[in-house]
Amino acid sequence: MLDAVAEAPAAVLPPAAAGRVLADGRLLAAAERADPEAAHRVVHYPMTGAWAERALRDLTTPGGRPRTATVAYLGATAAAAAARAGLRFTAEVPVRDGLLTLPTLGACTVPAGCTSVGVTGDGSRLWLHLPPPGGRPRRVEVRRGPDGVWRSAAAGWRPIRALSAAGARPVLIDDADPHRDEERRADPYGLTVADALGAGQHARWRTAWDDARPWLDLGGERAQGVGALLDCFVPLTRSATAHSSATRGDAFGALLSSTPSSGLELATTLVHELQHTRLLALSALTVLHNADDTPRYWAPWRPDPRPFDGLFQGAYAHLGLSDFHLRVALSAASPSVRDAAWADHCRCRQQVEAAMPQLLGCSRLTRQGRILVTAMAEHHRRLKEKRPPEGHLARATAYVETARVIWRRGRA
Fold first, then answer.
1. Judging by beta carbons within 10 Å of its beta carbon (0-12, 13-18, 19+), is residue 56 exposed, middle or buried?
2. How far apart are the C-alpha atoms of 143 and 149, rounded to whole Å?
3. CA torsion, ordered 85, 88, 93, 98, to nearest 10 deg
4. pLDDT at 78 exceeding the cut of 50
5. In 3D, which of 121, 254, 243, 260 has the Cα closest to residue 204?
């Protein structure tokens, strides 16, 4: 996709802008030749893919946003890939909303009115050439540390930090990339990305990340799924009463989440959102259904009608949650944690049970979709073999039936 972005501008951009983009394309290609794995970290980064898809759309759709500004971000991508590959290079990187951003590395505040910044690379060191208004140019030095984080003594630099686990690639906490909130303006859930995280917030993320590992290891495959599917967290602001999370369909590998309060909460979020990631990936590889987008289906976890795909996604996610909560309930956790897990397991289990007839009865499933839904039903049947403590199932059933009554009254 990035190759298409680099090659397309010659026919649709002014000559100077097209020349700049082609030069950026050559730098990106040089980084991929020098260190494919390092360049891959940038080229296949979730927000890079989201931006590249948008850039191609702007290049080919009349009336879109200014094409030059959108495609110019290739310079930031190329510079970040070249830096990770350890190249000596010079690039011109665009500024957006007062920030110079190098994807996967960090961002730097720039003087007002600045539209682009020269960046030079020298192995594990970068120089950002900032033009202060009315004065001499200022150079900001950024160095790659032994932990892979790019840091600077300059007050305006904001590094993108990482969470690490033994034997797994680091997962970034991205509070800097300008494309991390592209869906915010059309977001129906009111989620807002967080600004730069403070040291205390980063510490809470690290603690929750470390504490989540034992929960994810229950059953064995959850931790492996995190390592295979997750590239970065995009921090969200957290309300006083609720934890928020989401998955972006156009940024595979990114998980949006408010700062978790515990390892178990983070593990639950990972199970939930990575279920969506799996189903989105599968849907991109094969057609599971040909239902339209009309919101007509009852989803026991939502008050509003859902399109069939939303029902499918929700049922798949809640099936994974029911499985996870059951494992926690059967673990050696404290009695209070096990009791809460039984309650969550029963609620999710009954919600899936209420949704399954709509999925199984849908005539718009393809053969592949029918195979998946049948497998979901069988998994759900196996979950029901475990008998919960007295009262939990009755309360969960009453909860779902109340939701059904409210739904029917709203449709009357």
1. middle
2. 8
3. 90
4. yes
5. 260
**Closest alpha carbon to 362 in 351, 350, 377, 349:** 377
Q: How far apart are CA 206 and CA 65, in angstroms?
A: 38
Residue 303 predicted with pLDDT over 80:
yes
The pLDDT score that the predictor gives to residue 64 is 52
Q: Are 256 and 193 in contact (CB under 8 A)?
A: yes
d(CA 21, CA 13): 10
DSSP helix/strand/coil, 193: strand
Strand positions, DSSP E, 219-269: 232-236, 245-247, 254-258
Q: Which residue has the tokens 């800097």?
A: 176
> What average pLDDT does the structure give for the chain?
90
Token pair belonging to 236: 């969200």
Residue owning tokens 């779902």: 400
The residue that leads in pLDDT, 30 or 68, is: 30
State the residue for tokens 């797994």.
168
Q: Which residues, at least 6 apart from 354, have a Cβ–Cβ distance to it below 8 Å?
A: 298, 300, 400, 404
Tokens of 373: 């839904």
pLDDT value of position 133:
64
Distance of CA 77 to the CA centre of its chain: 18
% of the chain surpassing 90 pLDDT: 72
Q: Is the pLDDT confidence value at 21 over 90?
A: no
Q: Pinpoint the alpha helices (H) of 64-184.
A: 67-71, 74-84
Q: How far apart are CA 409 and CA 412, in angstroms?
A: 5
pLDDT at 189: 57
CA 316/CA 351 separation, integer angstroms: 11
Neighbours of 293 (CB within 10 A): 9
User: In whole angstroms, what is the distance from residue 248 CA to residue 280 CA?
Assistant: 9
- Residue 14 carries which side chain, given as an amino acid letter? P
What contacts 139, CB < 8 A, 6 or more positions away? Answer: 127, 128, 129, 130
The radius of gyration computed from the CA coordinates of the chain, to the nearest angstrom, equals 24
> Which residues are within 8 A (CB) of 316 and not within 5 positions of it... i.e. 6 or more apart?
275, 276, 278, 279, 376
